[in-house]
Write a structure and sequence with these properties.
Layout (H helix, E strand, L loop, with lengths): L1 E8 L6 H13 L4 E6 L14 H12 L5 E3 L12 H11 L3 E8 H6 L6 H4 L4 E5 L12 E4 L8 H9 L10 H10 L5
Parallel strand pairs: 1-2, 1-4, 2-3, 4-5, 5-6
Length: 189
C-alpha cells in the first residue's frame, strides 16, 4: 500500500515553509510521496483576488521541481465551489483505494479542526498529521499524529506584503518562484 501525504493550501505563493513541512513529514513517517493540493476556494480564508489559479499552479510546480517524491494534485482546482476536505478525501479514496493518506495541517488548522466541515466523517477518511506553528495551540481531542518540524516563521501573506513593498524575499522561497513572480509582475512586483 502506497503511503501518501497531502499538503493542501492556497500556495499563494508557495515558500520554503511549505517545502520544509512536506520534506520533514515525508521523512519522519516514511511516506512514498507528498501531494501538494492547491485549493479552489478555501472555506476558512480568502485567496488573493489578483492571482490566477494557473499562476499558483505554475509557482507550485516550480517550487517542487527536482524532488521526485513531490507532485501536484489538482483535484480541488478542477472543481468549482468551496474546497471541503471531506469531499476531496471521498473522491481521492475512491480513485486510489490502494493508498493510505495522511493530511498535513499546521497548528493553526489543528486549532480550527472542530469547525471543519463534517469533521466527524472526515476523521474516518484520512489520518491527520499536525506540525507546530509559532503562536498556535496544537493540542486537540481529534486523532492527530504529530511531526516535529524546525520552526520557520514565514507565510504567504508575509511574502506578498514584502513583494508589494519592494522588500527582499530571497531565501524565503525558491529562486525559480521569485523569478516567476517578477516576470509575471505578481503581488505588485
Amino acid at each position: 500500500m502506497k503511503k501518501v501525504g497531502i499538503l493542501g493550501g492556497t500556495f499563494d505563493p508557495p515558500h520554503y515553509g511549505h517545502l520544509l513541512i512536506a520534506n520533514e513529514v515525508l521523512s519522519t513517517l516514511h511516506l512514498d510521496e507528498i501531494w501538494f493540493m492547491p485549493n479552489q476556494e478555501p472555506p476558512h480564508k480568502k485567496k488573493s483576488e489578483s492571482i490566477k489559479n494557473e499562476d499558483r499552479l505554475r509557482m507550485l510546480e516550480l517550487a517542487i521541481s527536482g524532488n521526485a517524491s513531490f507532485r501536484v494534485e489538482t483535484i480541488e482546482l478542477d472543481r468549482q465551489g468551496p474546497s471541503y476536505t471531506v469531499d476531496t478525501m471521498k473522491m481521492i479514496n475512491a480513485q486510489y483505494s490502494d493508498h493510505q493518506f495522511f493530511f498535513i495541517i499546521g497548528a493553526d488548522m489543528i486549532e480550527y479542526l472542530p469547525k471543519w466541515h463534517k469533521i466527524d466523517e472526515l476523521i474516518n477518511l484520512v489520518q491527520f498529521v499536525g506540525v507546530e506553528r509559532p503562536e498556535y495551540n496544537s493540542r486537540t481531542e481529534y486523532p492527530v499524529l504529530y511531526v516535529d518540524v524546525p520552526a520557520i516563521d514565514v507565510s504567504s501573506s508575509m511574502i506578498r506584503d514584502r513583494v508589494k513593498s519592494r522588500q527582499t524575499v530571497r531565501y524565503l522561497l525558491p529562486d525559480s518562484v521569485i523569478q516567476y513572480i517578477e516576470e509575471k509582475h505578481l503581488y505588485g512586483s
